[in-house]
Amino acid sequence: MLNCQPHDLRILVSARLLKPLGIAPPNSVKDFATLDVLELMKDRTWLAKVTNTVNQHWRDHNVRKRRCDLVAVEERQSSQQTVGSRR
Asked: What does pTM read for this prediction?
């Protein structure tokens, strides 16, 4: 309905843009009221917030991932240089 992936719903819940029914444990399946979601989808401002929130989350996620990859490459290079200098 929202044209987003199932894993994006977690992002929307944590940003308080979607509210699941009941009080579900953190790692459980969440259910949402279709009527509530349909009402929210009529609000262009809410849709813009959803889009911006999901985009920002994945932008930040990718930046963190690239940083971790760079650190791993640098560590590998420094360990190879250390091993090479021992020979």
From this structure: 0.72
d(CA 58, CA 74): 24
Look at 64 and 69; give whichever has higher pLDDT: 64
For the beta carbon of residue 30, count every other beta carbon within 10 angstroms. 15
Residue 32 falls within a domain, yes or no?
yes
- Within-domain flag for 69: yes
- Burial grade of 79 (CB within 10 A; 0-12, 13-18, 19 or more): exposed
Check: CB of residue 32 under 8 Å from CB of residue 13.
no
Q: Give, for 67, the enclosing helix (H) or strand (E).
A: helix 44-86
Does residue 1 fall inside a structural domain? no
**Does residue 66 lie within any of the structural domains?**
yes
What is the domain extent for residue 44? Answer: 6-86
- Counted domains in the chain: 1
